[in-house]
Each structure stands twice: as structure tokens, then as C-alpha cells.
Amino acid sequence: MEMWEVAAREAIRDLATRYNANGDTGRFAVVRELFLTDAVMTIQGVTHTGIEAIMAVFSGTSESTPGLTHVRHFVATHQIDLIDESNATGRAYFVVLTDIGLDHWGRYVDEYRRVDGRWRFASRSVNLDGQVAASLFPRTV
Fold first, then answer.
1. Are 47 and 41 in contact (CB under 8 A)?
2. How much is the pTM?
3. Cβ 94 vs Cβ 21: under 8 Å
4. Strand pairing of 35-43 and 46-49?
5. What are the residue ranges spanned by the domains of the chain?
6. CATH topology of domain 3-131
């Protein structure tokens, strides 16, 4: 493994961690910086194209979950496949805990791109595998 590969993998892991850490705590301005301006986010088959549409997802989730005080995403089995020094793909499992405990779980499928020396999301697909009956999130998380 070459040094650029080690650096790329670590930067991509950091990107994915910052997405959940900042999203969970409502720091959406920081989340915004993690996406390319022309990024695409697909959630349960609904596609949001461009940074403004993606950020609307975050503000919409905040508005649709008014009593929510605790959100923590846990990510595991993060597989990163480097294509070249500026492009990679990845997939990971996630589990979300909220005020009620286990809330929902699923998979991320990502495309990453390095632009101006920084790795960012070019696309993120959020696939819900399940959620508890009392989930605090809308059924279309």
C-alpha cells in the first residue's frame, strides 16, 4: 500500500465520522462543507441533487422531529475502495440511537471525490433496513 492510499483512507474515514458527529448535534453548517456543491443524496429512493437540496433534508428532519433531544449514529464495517488518488467509493452499516434507544438502522453507499486537497461526498445513498415501531423519525428516514 502506498502512502497516498493510507492518507486517502484516513481522510475518508474522518469525512464519514464528521458527517454523523456534526449531523447528530445539529451543526449543519459543518455538514454542508462535507459535500461537493453538485453532490447527490438519495434517501430511501428519493434523490436530492445539489448542496441546497441536501441541506434542506437536514433542516426538514429537524422540523419533523420536534421532541427529539438525543441522536447518535454508530457506523461499522466501513469499506473504502480507492479508484485513484481523487476518487473512491464506500459502504458502511449504521445504527441510530435516540431518546427511545434503538431507533433505526441501515446502510450508506457513497462516492467520494478529492477536490482542492479535501475528500468530500460526491454522492451518499442512505438505505433504511429497519426501524422500531416507536421510531422518532418519519418512516422515510
1. yes
2. 0.91
3. no
4. antiparallel
5. 3-131
6. Nuclear Transport Factor 2; Chain: A, (3.10.450)
Determine the residue type at 95. V
Q: φ, ψ for residue 46 (rounded to 5)?
A: -100, 120
How many Å apart are CA 36 and CA 121, to the nearest integer? 6
Residue 36 zone, left/alpha/beta (φ > 0; ψ -120 to 50; rest)? beta
Q: 66-104 burial, b for 16+ CB within 10 Å, e for fewer? A: eeeeebebeeeebebebeeeeebbbebbbebebeeeebb
Note the pLDDT tens digit of each residue in 40-92: 999 989 999 999 999 998 876 655 565 677 889 999 999 999 999 999 999 99
DSSP 25-76: TT-HHHHHTTEEEEEEEEETTEEEESHHHHHHHHHHHHHH-TT---EEEEEE
DSSP state of 141: -
Residue given cell 435516540 in the structure block = 98
